[in-house]
Design goal:
With 399 residues, this protein is α+β, with helices and mostly antiparallel strands. It is built from ten helices and 15 strands.
Length: 399
C-alpha cells in the first residue's frame, strides 16, 4: 500500500507542488526582507513597560487570590502576611480565609483584612458575592482592593518567581534612597577614568554598567538615533548617527534617569530639578525648548557643554530589555522573520511604519498565509481532479 501511494501520480504531483511552494516561500521571504530594508523594533505603547522599578526595588505588596471551595479563598503573597480574621500572630506567604454568601439579601460584601510583615498599615480586599436568577449560581467580584492582585483564580506554577523573600531585596535604607550608591559609582568612574579603557560611546556605556553592577546599582544601556530614521532603519548611519547612553535607577526619585558616560552628563528639568529619563528628554526636544534642560556634570569624561544638536539623538529611543530563553522560538523567528527584532522596544514621536516590528510581522504573516492558502487550494484541486478522473464512467465500445 505504501509503495502504491509513493508511486501514484497524485503523490508525485503533490510532492512537486510542495517543493515549489517551499521554494516560493523561501524566495518570497528573502525578497520581502530585501524590499523592507530596515531592521524593526516593537513600538512602546505603555511607557511603564520600560520604566517600572527593577524587581529588587519593587517592594510593593502583591497577592495571588483563588477560590478553592464555595466558602474558602486562598491567598499567597510576595511578602509574608497574616489575615486578621484568622487571629494568627505569625506571618507566612500563604493562608486561607472563609467567605460568606448572601442569605436574605441580594448581595453580601466580604471584607478581608491583611497585614504584611514590616508594614505599618492594614490592607483590605472587598469581595462582593451576588445572587443570580438561578438560585444555585452566585457572582463573585473584587469590588475594592488596596493590594495589587497579580493573578485571580490562578497561582504561580513556580512560587519562587512570585514570592520575593526580603533576604533577596536590597537594604531598607537603599530602597528609600540609593543616592550613596550612585555617587559611589560616579566617584569610582572619575578616579579611574584613565585606566578604564574608555573609547566610543558603546564601550563607555558597557564600562559604566560594569561599574554599576559592582555597586549593585540598577543600570541599563539605551540606544538613540535622530535625523533620518523615518527613511532608513536605525542600523543605517544616516543623518545623526546612533549614540548609546545609560539609565540608572534612583530609589530616591523613584525613576530611571539618563547618565551619558561619553559626555559625563545627567540632565535635570530646571523648573523642578527632577532628573530626566530618555523619553522625557525626547518629549522636551520634540514639544518644548531644550533650554529647560539643565546639564549636570557628574563624570569627568568631557568638559564641554553639549549643544542643542546633541538632543537630536533623542528623537528615537531603543530599549532592549526582553530576554527570550527558548532557542527553538529564536530559530523560527530568525528563519521566518529575519527583520523582526522582538527584543528591541522603541519609543519615538514620529515612529515610521517601516520600522514598526508588529507591522512587519503582521504583513509578512499575511504573505505566508496567502501562499499557504494557494498551496492548500492547489492540493485540493489535484486531489479532486484525480477523484473525478477515477470515477468518470468509461465509454462503451460500439458493437
Amino acid at each position: 500500500m505504501f509503495k502504491f501511494v509513493l508511486s501514484s501520480y497524485s503523490f508525485r504531483v503533490l510532492s512537486i507542488i510542495t517543493v515549489l511552494v517551499i521554494a516560493v516561500i523561501f524566495v518570497s521571504s528573502k525578497i520581502f526582507d530585501k524590499l523592507w530594508e530596515s531592521d524593526t523594533s516593537i513600538p512602546i505603547t505603555n511607557i511603564n513597560d520600560v520604566y517600572n522599578p527593577p524587581q529588587q526595588y519593587d517592594n510593593i505588596e502583591k497577592i495571588n487570590l483563588r477560590l478553592i471551595s464555595k466558602n474558602r479563598v486562598e491567598i499567597e503573597g510576595n511578602t509574608k502576611f497574616r489575615i486578621l480574621e484568622n487571629n494568627k500572630s505569625s506571618f507566612n506567604f500563604y493562608d486561607t480565609v472563609s467567605i460568606n454568601y448572601p442569605a436574605n439579601s441580594f448581595e453580601l460584601l466580604n471584607k478581608i483584612y491583611l497585614e504584611f510583615e514590616k508594614s505599618h498599615s492594614v490592607d483590605s480586599i472587598f469581595l462582593v458575592i451576588s445572587k443570580s436568577y438561578d438560585q444555585s449560581l452566585y457572582y463573585k467580584q473584587i469590588f475594592f482592593s488596596t493590594i495589587t492582585i497579580n493573578n485571580l483564580n490562578k497561582f504561580s506554577s513556580d512560587v519562587s518567581k512570585f514570592r520575593i523573600n526580603y533576604d533577596n531585596l536590597v537594604p531598607e535604607n537603599i530602597l528609600l534612597n540609593n543616592d550613596t550608591l550612585i555617587n559611589s559609582v560616579f566617584r569610582y568612574f572619575n578616579d579611574n577614568k584613565d585606566t578604564l579603557g574608555l573609547a566610543e560611546c558603546g564601550t563607555n556605556c558597557i564600562i559604566f554598567k560594569k561599574i554599576c553592577d559592582k555597586f549593585d546599582l540598577p543600570c541599563r544601556l539605551v540606544w538613540l538615533q535622530g535625523g533620518d530614521i523615518d527613511q532608513k532603519g536605525y542600523y543605517d548611519y544616516i543623518g545623526y548617527p546612533q549614540h548609546v547612553i545609560c539609565e540608572v535607577y534612583s530609589s530616591k526619585n523613584k525613576k530611571w534617569y539618563v547618565v551619558d558616560p561619553s559626555y559625563g552628563f545627567r540632565f535635570a528639568d530646571k523648573s523642578n530639578d527632577s532628573y530626566l529619563n530618555a523619553v522625557e528628554i525626547c518629549n522636551k526636544h520634540t514639544f518644548k525648548s531644550t533650554d529647560s534642560i539643565f546639564q549636570d556634570s557628574v563624570l569627568s569624561t568631557q568638559k564641554t557643554v553639549v549643544g542643542k544638536d546633541y538632543f537630536k539623538y533623542y528623537e528615537n529611543i531603543i530599549f532592549g530589555n526582553l530576554i527570550i530563553e527558548n532557542k527553538l522560538f529564536k530559530k523560527v523567528i530568525r528563519l521566518l522573520y529575519s527583520k523582526f527584532n522582538y527584543t528591541s522596544y522603541s519609543f519615538s514621536n514620529n515612529f515610521p511604519p517601516i520600522q514598526n516590528g508588529l507591522f512587519y510581522f503582521g504583513l509578512k504573516t499575511f504573505m505566508y498565509f496567502i501562499l499557504i492558502i494557494l498551496y492548500i487550494n492547489s492540493v485540493m484541486f489535484v486531489l479532486i481532479r484525480r477523484l473525478f478522473i477515477v470515477k468518470k464512467p468509461r465509454k462503451k465500445n460500439d458493437q
